[in-house]
Each structure stands twice: as structure tokens, then as C-alpha cells.
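okkk here we go again. third time trying to get the zinc ion bound version out, last two times i messed up the smiles copy paste (missing a bracket lol). double checked this time i swear
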Amino acid sequence: MSATRILFSPQRSALTSLSRMLQGAAFRHARYFLLVDANTFTHCLPSLVSTVPPLQEAEFIELPVGEEAKSLSIAEQVWASLLDSGADADSVIVNLGGGCVCDLGGFVAAGYQRGIRYINVPTTLLAMVDAAVGGKTAVNLQGVKNQVGFFYPPVAVCIHPPFLDTLPHDEWLSGRFELLKCQLLGGDSFADLPWDTPLDDAAVRRLVGDAAHFKAAVCRSDPRDKGVRRILNFGHTFGHALESFMAQKGTPIPHGYAVAWGMWFELWLSVKRVGCDEVLLRRYGQLVQGLLSVPRLTLRDTESILGFMRHDKKNAEGTIRCVLLKEPGCPVIDIPLDEMEIRDALLKKLSV
Ligand SMILES: NC(=O)c1ccc[n+]([C@@H]2O[C@H](COP(=O)([O-])OP(=O)(O)OC[C@H]3O[C@@H](n4cnc5c(N)ncnc54)[C@H](O)[C@@H]3O)[C@@H](O)[C@H]2O)c1
Ligand SMILES: [Zn+2]
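finally!!
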């Protein structure tokens, strides 16, 4: 798989770098198809096309907002539009949006004529630090998330933090926790702004490029998710289960919030199982409680969450597995958990 270029610079606009890239020989015959949703059409498209002249002739395809975009029927509609417009092997899809637009657009690019090039221009914090990078593309199937997809990397990811100006606060905070996950996993790679520094807007903007490079490097060394890339699941064994549980209860929480609590549970287990310092757990607990209100869980709730964990795609040989953290920068993958310690983590951790 060819490498993805990450276009990001603290000094220069990434859109200018994108413009320069598209004026190069590799794109001389390119025709562009720009995928947007209603929000990125309004908030992000004007500055993209005005700064990147090669995109002024692009055809727009508008997708539904959110998860609704990630379906086979939407993919089929986009393929049909590409066919009607005579898109060919030189055509390039440009995904302007959050993780949903990027996942669907990558999926469409992977399938059209057995694969055409695509570029991700992420517009949410979560997509900048996570979804747009790494080459996983997917649609949902019969309510199951990301069930059909390909490993198919974009030729470039263009990270332009000013797009975050219009992002709603809960979307911003949700992405903030995926960024925090990168900081905890990357350790010294983020030495300038350690994970426990309270981050203001400006600091987040400086960090997004580092986080994208960090994720890209992890994915390059394990493009098919067979080993080291699994570190990126830190916080997600508990996080996904909590996210599903809250949705089932009718009180859904953003993905990043669930990951924030997931990391807390998993840090509690890290202290017990791999010698993580209790001080780190305490400082993390303070930070997350300063930003979010704590979900209260009853004994019955913990059984439901455990039920979701038993069905996690990440399990192997019937055992629930998890990523734990010895210290920032030192994750350990594939730690098998027994159900008693999961119950303990869910119930006791919140009183640490
Ligand atoms: N492929 C991967 O490796 C990977 C990794 C993590 C998550 N994901 C996927 O990403 C998806 C979630 O991504 P997301 O959180 O970005 O959600 P999203 O794409 O639904 O965007 C969230 C909301 O923000 C709006 N929005 C986007 N940019 C905006 C802007 N600049 N200003 C105002 N509003 C804006 C969107 O229209 C939407 O309403 C999930 O489907 C998840 O499965 C994929
Ligand atoms: Zn996540």
C-alpha cells in the first residue's frame, strides 16, 4: 500500500499545500469529485474551493449528515453519479467532512473501477486525529457499524485546523478525547504538550498535526491491524460497550466521551495488571471529571455493559481483551480480562 501524505503545517495553510500538490504532474489529468454533507457544504466548502483553484471545477456530491451516509445504498448512489459523469481512472474523490464522509468516500473510491485515488480533508477534530488517517474505510450493514469495508489509504490527508471554528462544542470535546488517547499512547512524541496539560483551542490546533502523524506512523507499521496498530484501541474495549449501552438506554453519548470513560476504566485495570502508577490514574480521573459529568452505573448496568463487551469484534478465543498502559508511551496489547475484574473496574473505579 502506498504511503499517505499528511499535509499540515503550523506556519502555512494546509490548503495551500493541497493546492500545490494538485498542480503537480501526478494530478495533470485529474477530475475531482467533492463529497460533502450539508454542514461542510455551508461551513467548509467556500474556503476550500477559493484556496484550492484546481477544485473550482469539481463536481459536488452531497451526502446525508452523520451515520446515514455510511450505507451501501448511498455508496451505490455515489457510484452511479460517478459513472453518469464519466469518472475514470484519473478521477480523484475529495472527502470534505467528518469521519462519516471520509469513511463513505474512501469506501466508494476503493470500489469504483477497482480503486481510484482519494484525498481526505477532515473537518472534525475526531476525523483530523483519527478517522481520516490510516486507510480504514467502511459502511454500516443492518445496523452493525463498519461491517463492510476495505483497507484503502488516501493519497493525502489535508489537515486545516480553521475548519474547527464552526464545530459544535460536543463534537469538539469528543475529538479532544481521541487526541488525549494519542497523547497517552505516544508519550514522548507529545513532550511539548504532555497529556495532562489543559488544552485550549490554540494548543489543540498545534497538536492535531502531531496526532495525525503519530497515527499514520502506527498504521504504516501495521497496515492490516494485526499487531501494533491495536494500541489504538486503548479506551475502546470499555468505551464501545459503554457507548452501545448508553444508546440502548436512550441516552446516547458522543463516541469520544465513551472513550474518555473507557480510558479511565482501562487505566484502573492498568494499575492492577501492568504496574501503571496510581498517580496517573488519579490525574486522569481529575482531568476527565473536570470536562464531563460522570455516568452513574448500577450493578444491573454493569451486567449490560459486560454483555456488550462479550460481543466485541476485538475478542479472540472467547476472551475479552484490552489494551492497557504501563505508562504514557508504553501500551500493552491483547491483555485478557476476566469478568470479575471487569465488574470491579466498572463499579469501583468511579469511586477512585
Ligand atoms: N476509519 C477510521 O479509522 C475511523 C476511526 C474513527 C472513527 N471513524 C468513524 O468516524 C465516524 C465519526 O466521525 P465524526 O465524529 O467526525 O462524525 P461526523 O462525520 O458525523 O461529523 C459530526 C458532525 O459534525 C458536522 N460537521 C463536520 N465538520 C463540521 C464543521 N467544520 N463545522 C460544523 N459542523 C461540522 C457533521 O455534519 C456532523 O453533523 C464514525 O462513523 C466512525 O465509525 C472511522
Ligand atoms: Zn475511537
